[in-house]
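Chapter review: from sequence to fold.
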Amino acid sequence: MYKKIKIKKLPWLYLSFFILIASCWTFYMFNTHSFHLFLKHGYALLTMIIGSFIAGSSPEGSAAVAYPVFTLFLKIPPPVARNFAFAIQSIGMTSATLLILNLKIKVEWNYIKYVTFGGIFGLVFGTYYIVPLISPPVAKLFFVSLWLSFGLVLWNENRKQKRVFFDAIQQFGRSDMARLLFLGLIGGMISSIFGTGINIFSFCFMTIYYRINEKVAVPSSVIIMTIETLLGFFIHAGVVKDFQPLAFEMWLVCVPFVAVFAPLGAYVISKVPRKTGATFLSIILIIQFFGAMWAVKPNGWQLIMCLTVLAAGLGLFAYVSKMQRSRHLPAT
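The token string follows.
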């Protein structure tokens, strides 16, 4: 009886997906004699072992690690890095999502539904009308500066001894529906550029404005990014058809590893204290910012832009923190 109970408790949804992916990957690699790709793309594997763990344990998709490393350090063309990000997250974040659902980790479904719906339109619009106009280094500096400002405000919020937070949006209404749709729309446009973004962008407002518990907001953001990345992968591989051979080779090398480390990250973050998870996120955002500064080596006007965005972001998120929608509601 004891063994039967333990077997039933196994996350079979995730394990079934992993077995399917691992079997298909092994069959393809042997039949195409592709194991030499590990020597060619070892840097991608190392990057994604770290990146996939971060993707599962934070609102940052693995592209938040892969994109700057590939484009800034390894000089891989931004379109290749973006397409690779969509492809590899389709494995890693799907694995993390299935484990989250299997373990019944608490999520906020209103947040997931409306941000995802808005994100679909934002991703499609951004792919066709924004991506061709963006300078990737400048855009990356802009967003790491903005995320750093959020990380600093979140850290300051968590210094408060009696910070009130919730596991769900309180008294959800039509205005919240519209707000989340808009956040999803903007987040989808961000994701169209980097292969990630809707998760961290919406997470910022969920934790500061709605005061949602980070332990609930993180797995919710993982599910949102999973749906977004599957759509992004489909658009580039099946519709636009600009999925490059280099992106495919790197994807092959990383597939089985991200299918393990992304759900591992989701499991670990569900077990640590809320403040520890929030501190971990703040550290990631700080490292991401200074890593981008070191790699890009911004010129004078780019540095001014970063400082301006950082100052504006601090002001914005501090203001959002003070106008919290749920300020007068009791904690649950």
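Two observations follow directly from the output. The chain has a mean pLDDT of 85. The two ends are 37 Å apart (CA to CA).
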